[in-house]
Amino acid sequence: MSTPVYITSAAAWIPPAESAKEAVADGRYAAEDFEENKMVCLPVVADETSVPDMAAFAGRRALDRAAHVVGGRLDALVHASVYHQGRDYCWTSAPYIQRELAVTGAFAVNVQQLSNGGMVAMDLAVSQLQSGRASSAMVTTADRFCLPGMDRWRGAYGIVLGDGATAMVLSTAGGFARVHAIASYTDASLEPLHRGSHPFTTSPQPKVDDLREPKKSYLARVGKESVLQRCEVALQELVRSVLQQSGHTLDDFAKILMPNMGHGLMDVQFLKPLGISADRSLMDWGRYTGHLGAGDLTAGVARLVEKKLVREGDLVLLASAGGGYSLTAAVLEIESVPHWPEATTDFPLPADVTE
Question: Which of 8, 68, 105, 187 measures 20 to 30 Å from 338, CA to CA?
Answer without folding.
Answer: 105
